[in-house]
Structure formats: C-alpha cells, structure tokens
Amino acid sequence: MEILLIEDNPDHAELTQRALADGGTASRVRWVRDGAEALDYLGRRGRWATAPRPGLILLDRRLPTIGGDEVLRRIKADPTLRSIPVVMLTTTDRPEEVRQAYEAGVNSFVTKPVRFQDFVERVRQIQRYWVLTNQLPRVP
Fold this sequence. Notes:
This protein is α/β, with parallel strands linked by helices.
C-alpha cells in the first residue's frame, strides 16, 4: 500500500517513516512537507504528475502554506479522493480541534506521544489497522 505522509517536521517524518518500515507490512511511504505540495501530489500536478494514488494519508495538522485542516477539507470535497482514509497525526489534543477534524471528514485523529518509543508504537498501530485489518474500497 502507498502511504502519503504530509509532515513539515523532518524529525517527525523520519521517525514515522522508520516506524512504518519496521511495522511488518510492505507499505511504501511518500513524504511531502507542506499542504501545497500535498495537494499537488494528490492532484498529480508538476513533479507529481505520475504519483501513485495513496491508500492511506497521514496528515499533520499544523503545516506551512496550506494547513492540515484545509488539506483535509479539500481531500474530502474531491469525489476522486474522498474515499482515501485520512489519519490526522498531530501534537494537539484540544477537544475543539479533534471535533473540527471529524466534522471535516477525518477518519481517525491520533495525538503524537512525546516519548520516542510511544510514538513509534502509535504509528505501528495505525499501520496495522489501516493496512492489515481495515478493508478499503478498490479504486479503478
């Protein structure tokens, strides 16, 4: 499965990619650093013209250029993208932000733990569920 990681923090991106690589599934991770690049990837524009469609999106909430909430709204408003599960993977746990994300169509909201090992385990749990357990619709 292709996983699109939308994360501006290089350290968080590296940890997430490492956890996914060690997670025991054959997932390929593509990393983009901001909201505009994410939308270009999903719209297959510019250097992303031949980008594969992701089966899962891991989306940080606080992003430069276009924030995670807006990226989420655009994904869920697009009939060709809305079936892709989006997991908001972020440092916040404020109830109003969680509510807003679900109202915008997020499939799961996960807070990044502070401790390294907890973070790695949380990412692996996400991967096990969305890649190994959950059944996703087939896309033509």
